[in-house]
Specification:
Length: 364
């Protein structure tokens, strides 16, 4: 597929070596995730051409941006990218409109894919256009910075921890706008983060980096559910599922969520939504208990038939991590070693997963 993003990069510094081969989908959000020092920002800077890897091959949507073997290097200003940094470096002497028009005016009108009005609506900044950039809050600045990046009509959008410098309320303010970009734009986005919550809400594809190497790369949910990765050992280990909304129970205010490509559904406390809306939820390993039989006499309303795929050790000797399959959807459950022995847990066993809680991540 020519729409993919391919980057083979080798960067050697005194105390750090980056050696990665990234093959990312040419749509949706690919998250580069890992602790600081794992090489996330270096990858992004190489994609942008801001850092020149000693050995590199970078191809985006069929166009080669760098091929060190052939001496090809497209300079940053000739790469059709939008780059959003941790801190939006706006021109403080210009109005918001002036900042937005700065990039937009430099783009050949024939190649413009997004207009000022569209960018302002997507990021909810219409009312800020005449304000001076230095009068904006951190969250507003970041939204203007994202809109400015979009107005360069990029083939690829790069975001380097765009929420890291913001406090929790500002992060909550911006996340819905990032979700809108994900849903409404056809521009692939590479998103650097060390925050699992952001990745769970936004990513479609997850690349896990550690010490300059790729530990794993794949669709978000399959990667989150792998027992052999450090994410599964995390206190907040869990999976993300995107389902479609169905019927609504007015009496109990419960919304049906149908899991894709299966007969399974969950019922979640939620305000009504139009049927067929997409809803993204997170189910944490600690919120699933396991039973050999379907227990109808329980306060837990969500019970799914599952097959046990694998058992994994936890850092804690009293606990086990269990990988489950619910009609093709991976789930993780954390149980005590005692319960594992009592239930006779082993691969292939048919069980019921009782889901105590579901965290809503966003809908569109």
């Amino acid at each position: 597929m020519t729409s993919r993003i391919h980057a083979r990069l080798k960067v050697a510094r005194d105390d750090f070596t980056l050696d990665v081969d990234l093959d990312l989908p040419g749509q949706g959000v690919s998250a580069l995730f890992g602790a600081s020092g794992s090489g996330k920002t270096t990858c992004l800077r190489c994609l942008a051409g801001l850092e020149r890897a000693g050995e590199a091959y970078i191809e985006v949507a069929g166009t080669v941006w760098q091929d060190s073997a052939k001496g090809i290097f497209v300079p940053p200003h000739q790469r059709p990218i939008g780059y959003v940094f941790q801190e939006a470096s706006l021109f403080s002497h210009l109005s918001v409109r002036g900042n937005l028009e700065f990039g937009w005016k430099r783009i050949d009108p024939a190649t413009r894919r997004i207009n000022l009005q569209q960018a302002c609506e997507l990021l909810g900044i219409d009312h800020l256009l005449e304000r001076k950039a230095d009068t904006l809050s951190g969250g507003e600045r970041q939204r203007v910075g994202i809109a400015r990046a979009l107005l360069t009509s990029p083939s690829l959008l790069l975001m380097d921890e765009p929420l890291a410098a913001l406090d929790a309320p500002r992060k909550r303010e911006i996340l819905p706008y990032l979700e809108r970009l994900h849903d409404e734009l056809r521009i692939p986005l590479v998103y650097v983060s060390h925050a699992q919550e952001e990745v769970a809400r936004l990513a479609d594809h997850l690349v896990l980096l550690e010490h300059g190497k790729v530990l794993a790369s794949g669709p978000l949910n399959q990667t989150l559910a792998r027992l052999d990765l450090p994410l599964a050992q995390d206190e907040d280990a869990g999976v993300v599922i995107e389902g479609r909304t169905g019927a609504y129970d007015e009496t109990y205010q419960l919304l049906d969520l149908h899991l894709p490509d299966s007969e399974l559904r969950l019922r979640i406390p939620h305000a009504p939504l139009p049927a067929g809306s997409t809803l993204r939820i997170r189910i944490q390993a600690r919120d699933i208990s396991l039973s050999l039989t379907e227990n109808n006499h329980s306060s837990i309303i969500n019970r799914l038939p599952v097959t046990l795929r694998a058992l994994g050790e936890q850092g804690n000797p009293a606990q086990m991590l269990v990988s489950l399959d619910a009609a093709g959807h991976p789930l993780l459950a954390r149980v005590t070693r005692y319960s594992s022995d009592q239930l006779g847990l082993q691969p292939g066993l048919q069980l019921w997963a009782q889901i105590k809680g579901v965290a809503l991540l966003g809908h569109h």
